Fold this protein.
Amino acid sequence: MATTRAVSRSAPVAGRAKSARRGSSARRAGTARGGRDDAKTMTSSETMMNLDALLGVEEGTEETMGRTTVDASSSSSSSSSSSVASVPERNSTERNSNSNSNSTAALWTLEDVVERPDPLATHDPERDWLGAGPRWDVKWGGVRFVLTMLAVDASFYLAGFFAPVYTYVGTRAEEMIPSDPVLLQADLQRAYDDPVIFSHIFLNAEVTQIVLGLLILGLSVGPFAPLPTGWFNDIFSSDDPKRNATGRESQQWKRDAVKRAQAERSAASGREASRAIAGTFLGVTLVTWALYVAGVRGGENSGSSSVEIIDKAFSAGPQGIVNLIVTTVVLAPIYEEVIFRGYMLPTLTKFMPTTAAVGASAVIFALIHEHGIGDTVQLIAVGLATGIVYARTRNLGASIAVHATFNAAVIALFALWVS
């Protein structure tokens, strides 16, 4: 169970290049003056020649060099011409080397990826048996992604720590809170074991988790806004070609074919979600049957069990059931789909095909819940269904519907069982 502030890396790079050119020019000029004290001051035409060479302008080099003043010695002119002529070649090689190096390093750095590959370049619609579509255009690197997900995971623990504390304080008068640490710990445990208070803790923990998680996501993704198309239902996206790498290097027929297929699946989001819901229940049923046959039932071997949480909420009466429904059917599906399908799955396509990213995101989604073995396997099935429907439709509403329906069905089945 982000915000806008565009970052441009090209300006700092250009600034460094200009500084390097000015520094190189100054050094060369100083050497020339030291070697020829009796030479006249460099003319404006010579200055333009050197600047052209430093900027990599090879055309017209010989013509420009012809404008060298007559009073310069022939040997100095020859030496200077040879030296200057080699600069464009060196600079071009260095730029190409730096570009390749930066493109590779950008995968695992915090830096914005200035030159991103076209996701359509490696996409073959005829071999896309799942209909998952092309990869996303990802602007951030792997380190930023890993740190973001670790921070989101840490927010689960923080919410689990603080929610019981401020819920407890809210249910106790100041004079009723023990000052002795041992007595306080015992009273906290009694509050946690109380079904009514626990239902409030459950809801407060989810709200705290959402606030922290969205703050983390905003800080991570915000500097790259507006995002390329396809992210978060295009709420923060721009279709400006300068901000999108998708289709930049692909032929028109391929761009049209992918766009048409994507539009058709997106328009049929309701039908896609219905299929995913049916697939989810079928998959969970088969998994649950296999677990019972193997003697492994959800939540009994390790971690917490969703059944135990539902049981405790039902024990709290109507208020507990309301808190449970708001948490698991409304808040959790929206938040978790934004994080796991809206952010994690697309980012994973930077390093693997979309179909593989669907599987990887489902496994991470299940493990991060830290439930028992049975629940974890069932959550993998849910993660696969929501990941497939999101990749096919690029519509978070469809994956949220699948997630919410599954959680609601689990609660309904439990209600039928206890009745």
